[in-house]
Amino acid sequence: MKEIFQQRLLNWFEQNKRNLPWRNTQNPYFIWLSEVILQQTRVAQGLPYYLKFIEKYPTIQDLAKAPEDEVMKLWQGLGYYSRAKNMHYTAKYLTEIHQGQFPTSFEEIKQLKGVGQYTAAAIASFAFNQPVAVVDGNVQRVLARWLGINTDIKNKKIFQSHADALLNFEKPAAHNQAMMEFGAVQCVPQNPDCASCIMQDICYAYKNDLVRELPIRVKKPFKPEKKAYFYYIENEEHQILIRKRPNKGIWANLYEIPNTLNTELDLTLPAQYLEKGYLKHIFTHFILHITWLHYKIQKQDIVLSQNYEWVEIDKTDDFAYPVPVQKIITTIRNKKGLF
DNA sequence: AATTCGGGGGT
DNA sequence: ACCCCAGAATT
Q1: Is A236 a catalytic residue?
Q2: In the 3-class helix/strand/coil scheme, how is A272-320 assigned residue by residue?
Q3: Structural domain boundaries, residue A53
Q4: B3 C1' – A323 CA distance, angstroms?
Q5: Does residue A219 lie in a domain region?
Q6: Is the pTM higher than 0.90?
Q7: pLDDT tens, position by position, A163-205
């Protein structure tokens, strides 16, 4: 059965694979970059970021010598910002400590910051053709349905052992990519077209009418909601107040306008604001209700704690912001002239 | 083993 | 409103 699956899978892959830029290379730097960008991210969303990164940083040395703020700005909007932070750290590490050489074994690759089990297996197999099986969300779905695995997909070990057993040792790179592509294109999460599937006659879920039930994903019962105020504070010199967030926690090392998310406001503001608005921001683990307020003040009337800085409104785009902060700035700035 | 970390697109 | 994506680090 294993050989039948492997052979059909590779045949299917040859005929149906998408032409993606990181598939036309064995450069470990490009492959690593693409894998980090694509962590928990759809190909369609990650693709433009990948193209931006390889254009701006054609080599790992280019990435290593870039300022972190510039890397974060290029990453803006992708989310999971620690990926960018770790990636930049690892680029510097490999350039300065490792002579710019990418490690070639799975074990060494997995030691790199920001590289876990999946990404290490992907790089080792794609770039160096090592026989290590990748397990991502796509692979888990394919395995769960084909074999009828009914344990929660959080139980990674179960899936890894099945993926290991199924790996094609002759062609690990093609096999791994084919597994993921099959999950992404054919064995999709919702309403897969099983009628056209080449694995139909050997698929446990299809034969037992369990396609809709597998894979099993245990979800958290509820998502908490928080409220916060965000303050667009403008002075008479057309500057606004921003600061860099701490290097840990949510939105690490991104820039923000004054706000009450997880903190008290450390500023004294006048009684009157110019306008206000509302924004809902949905995270994986909570919902944030944002009320934004637009103030105009005299620069001399405010005492700044040391890490705030005034920035020209026309230069605010040089900094990397969380998406809701960028939305507030863009919304208000685009009304310039009304006030 | 459970929680934290983002954002977007599909349905 | 819910799902889930080429997951990893931290607790």
Answers
A1: no
A2: CCCEEEEEEEECCCCEEEEEEEEEEECHHHCCCCCCCEEEEHHHHHHCC
A3: 2-207
A4: 23
A5: no
A6: yes
A7: 999 999 999 999 999 999 999 999 999 999 999 999 999 999 9
